[in-house]
Structure formats: structure tokens, C-alpha cells
């Protein structure tokens, strides 16, 4: 439907009725919108969690151990009487911060490596590709566990190990896109005009590669969250009394056999919801930004 300069209203193209135009218009992706809404809610909880918790997340109540859901404790209490809902909310920040650091490091280094390999080509490209193949052969979770075993419990060593393990996931995709972008005529034209390399990277190549980076980072975040939670579950990541979700699943495991699964159940459910939300959001962004199914 178009409007001419001197017409009084819209002029329809032949054969195009409002009904057919509505049918041609792309439908809204409610799955991606819903996943984005879930992610937004948890980001708000991460920012405001300590301010909106109904109870002190670390307040122990020995007389109220493993209590069921009530008007005071909506999700019940854990094995030391702490409010589970408050700990889930307060733990959002620490549970999302570690995966965010992993993805930030791996995405930044991976994008630089991808641009370097695509731009230089030849031996540099072969060296980067070979190094990525070697790193890809080591499971990220195993690398993180070994790093924690060598350097001690805590999140610093696992974050570094996971950042290295996630490099191939980012670099491979961005490198392929960068090679195609590198061979486009406008890049050669900019070089003939004497544009410096860093300006071509920052003002032309990188903006065109951002959709690929964003999609891979979003999908990778969910997997990083799962790996960090698994490390904390093994006792090698966050340490008590930190209300990290993986640690909460581990702390509540002994109570499952006693018929009190609420701590592990709710913490595991939250991890599942966030991981699925990031995966669905990444898939939707891939369709929307790249025009393909992930």
C-alpha cells in the first residue's frame, strides 16, 4: 500500500487487499517475545533482588526447618530454616553474573580472533582454526572442574576455563561471516581509498557482524549458566552461604530422600526456565536478525 504526493488517501496496488496484505505481513513471534519477557524479569531481579526480598536470605531459623509453603514463606524453607523464595531472588545476581562474565570474555576474544583470522588469512587463519579445533576437543565443564581442582574452590578459575572453552563457539561463526564480509567489494574500495584497518574493522565490519555475535552470545549464555550451576553443584564454585542456584540444588539434595525436595526442586526449576528462555530468545533472534533457523 502506497500514498502518492497529491492523493487524498492511500492507493492500493492491484490485487492487494487489506486482507492479503495482513496475510503477507510477518506474524509476531510470541515465543521469542515471551522468552525475552522472562529474561527481562530475571535481569530486573538481578538488579533489584536485595531490595525486594521478603526475608533475609541468610537468616537461619532452626525451629522452622524444611517448612512447607505458607503465607509467610511462599515456597517454604530450606534445611536451615531460610526462606527459599528470598534466596532464589537474592541468588539471581550471583547466578547470572558468572555466566555473563564467561560470555563477555569469550565473545570479546572470539570476535577479535575471528576478525584477525578472516582479515589476515593464510597461515594466521590456519593457526587460529587449528587452535580452536584443539580447544573444542576439551569439554568446557571438565576444563572448569580441573581448573577448580588445581586452583581451589571458587568461581575465578572456572570462569577463566569456561571462557576459553566457549571461544570456538563464538569464533567459528563470526569468522565464517567475517570472511564473507571481508571479500565484499566495499572493503577493497575502502582499502584503495587508504582507510586504516582499525577504522574498517570498527566502522564497517564489526557493525555488520554484530547480529551473529549477539545470537551466539545469547544462546551461549544459557549453556554457560548451566555449566556454572553444575560447578557450584559439585562444590567447586560458589560457597555457602551464597544463595547461588546450583549451590541451592546441591544443598537441598540430602532433604529429597526425607521427602522435602522444595529447595532443590525450585532452584532446579529456575535454572531450567532461564536456560530455556535464553535458548528460545537466541533462536528467535537468529530468525529475526539472520533470517535462518538456529
Describe the 3D structure.
There is one protein chain. With 294 residues, the protein is an all-alpha fold. The protein has one domain (29-53, 84-290): MetI-like fold. 70% of the residues lie in helices and 0% in strands. The protein is built from eleven helices and no strands. Helix 5 packs antiparallel against helix 6 (156-165), helix 7 runs antiparallel to helix 9 and helix 10 runs antiparallel to helix 11 (262-290). The longest helix has 37 residues, at 84-120. Mean pLDDT is 86; it is low at 1-25.
State the main characteristics.
mainly alpha, MetI-like fold, 294 residues, elongated
Provide a compact summary of the structure.
The chain is an all-alpha fold. It has helices at 18-24, 30-52, 84-120, 122-136, 140-151, 156-165, 167-182, 185-192, 197-233, 245-256, 262-290. The chain has a single domain, classed as MetI-like (MetI-like fold).
Quantity of strands, as a count: 0
The fold-level CATH name is: MetI-like fold
Helix-strand topology string: HHHHHHHHHHH
Number of separate structural domains: 1
The end-to-end distance, rounded to whole angstroms, is: 33 Å
Mean pLDDT: 86
The percentage helix is over 70%
Low-confidence stretches: 1-25
Topology summary:
Blueprint: H1 18-24, H2 30-52, H3 84-120, H4 122-136, H5 140-151, H6 156-165, H7 167-182, H8 185-192, H9 197-233, H10 245-256, H11 262-290
Helix pairs in contact: 2-3, 2-11, 3-4, 3-6, 3-7, 3-9, 4-7, 5-6, 5-9, 7-9, 9-10, 9-11, 10-11
Amino acid at each position: 500500500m502506497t500514498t502518492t504526493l497529491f492523493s487524498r488517501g492511500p492507493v492500493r496496488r492491484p490485487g492487494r487487499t487489506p486482507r492479503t496484505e495482513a496475510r503477507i505481513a510477518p506474524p509476531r513471534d510470541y515465543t521469542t517475545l515471551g522468552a525475552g519477557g522472562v529474561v527481562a524479569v530475571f535481569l530486573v531481579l538481578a538488579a533489584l533482588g536485595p531490595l525486594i526480598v521478603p526475608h533475609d536470605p541468610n537468616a537461619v531459623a532452626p525451629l522452622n526447618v524444611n517448612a512447607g509453603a505458607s503465607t509467610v514463606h511462599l515456597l517454604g524453607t530450606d534445611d536451615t530454616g531460610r526462606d527459599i523464595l528470598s534466596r532464589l531472588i537474592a541468588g539471581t545476581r550471583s547466578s547470572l553474573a558468572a555466566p555473563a562474565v564467561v560470555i563477555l570474555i569469550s565473545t570479546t576474544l572470539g570476535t577479535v580472533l575471528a576478525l584477525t583470522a578472516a582479515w589476515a588469512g593464510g597461515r594466521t587463519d590456519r593457526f587460529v582454526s587449528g587452535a580452536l579445533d584443539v580447544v573444542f576437543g576439551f569439554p568446557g565443564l571438565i576444563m572448569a572442574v580441573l581448573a577448580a581442582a588445581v586452583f581451589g574452590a571458587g568461581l575465578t578459575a572456572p570462569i577463566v576455563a569456561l571462557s576459553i572453552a566457549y571461544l570456538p563457539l563464538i569464533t567459528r561463526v563470526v569468522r565464517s561471516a567475517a570472511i564473507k564480509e571481508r571479500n565484499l567489494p566495499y572493503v577493497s574500495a575502502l582499502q584503495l581509498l587508504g582507510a586504516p584497518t582499525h577504522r574498517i574493522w570498527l566502522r564497517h565490519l564489526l557493525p555488520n557482524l554484530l547480529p551473529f555475535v549477539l545470537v551466539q552470545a545469547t544462546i551461549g549464555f544459557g549453556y554457560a549458566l548451566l555449566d556454572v550451576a553444575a560447578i557450584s553443584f559439585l562444590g567447586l564454585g560458589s560457597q555457602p552461604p551464597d544463595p547461588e542456584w546450583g549451590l541451592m540444588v546441591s544443598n537441598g539434595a540430602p532433604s529429597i530422600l526425607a521427602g522435602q525436595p522444595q529447595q532443590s526442586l525450585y532452584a532446579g526449576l529456575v535454572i531450567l526456565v532461564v536456560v530455556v528462555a535464553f535458548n528460545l530468545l537466541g533462536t528467535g533472534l537468529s530468525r529475526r536478525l539472520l533470517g535462518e533457523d538456529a
